[in-house]
Amino acid sequence: NGISHTTVPDDFEGVYTILQWLSYMPKNNTSPVPVISPKDCPEREIDFVPTKAPYDPRWMLAGRPHPTIKSAWQSGFFDHGSFSEIMKPWAQTVVVGRARLGGIPVGVIAVETRTVELTNPADPADLESESKIVQQVGQVWFPD
């Protein structure tokens, strides 16, 4: 239908991305999901703690570089390096992707907590239309 779930700079990266996505899927509908040895201990402490202030939900899911300790990692909910976001430039008030939890593949849906801007382009068929920038508040899923 012409929908792109991600954009990549070249064909090699495109093939790599497809193979990564397929690594989360069973080979057919009767096969078990492909569980791999986890990179992180499943019983580990999760270092990132969400705040009351708006924050990037990807930090909670995937972790982030530690804000005060150089070369340190603040772990997120899922296995380190396993979160793969899809459709990032579209529907910006929701974060969707795939990740692994203890080596088990899972689908991920999280709400964006920060305000985002949506640009509605002008309608080229209407001479009086104008491009508009609309603020979309965090923690609300908009149907765009």
Please, could you describe this protein's structure?
By secondary structure, the chain is α+β, with helices and mostly antiparallel strands. The protein has two helices and seven strands, in the order H-H-E-E-E-E-E-E-E. The strands form three sheets. It has a three-stranded antiparallel sheet. Strands 1-2 form a two-stranded antiparallel sheet. It has a two-stranded antiparallel ribbon with strand order 6-7. The protein is globular, with a radius of gyration of 18 Å. The mean pLDDT is 87.
Summary, kept brief:
With 144 residues, this protein is α+β, with helices and mostly antiparallel strands.
Q: Whole-number average pLDDT? A: 87
Largest sheet: 3 strands, antiparallel
Distance between the ends: 17 Å
Number of strands: 7
Indicate the low-confidence ranges by residue numbers: none
Estimated structural class = alpha+beta
From the spread of the alpha carbons, the general shape counts as globular
Order of helices and strands: HHEEEEEEE
Tally the helices.
2
Strand order, main sheet: write it out: 3-4-5
Radius of gyration: 18 Å
Share of residues in strands: 15-25%
Helix content: 10-25%
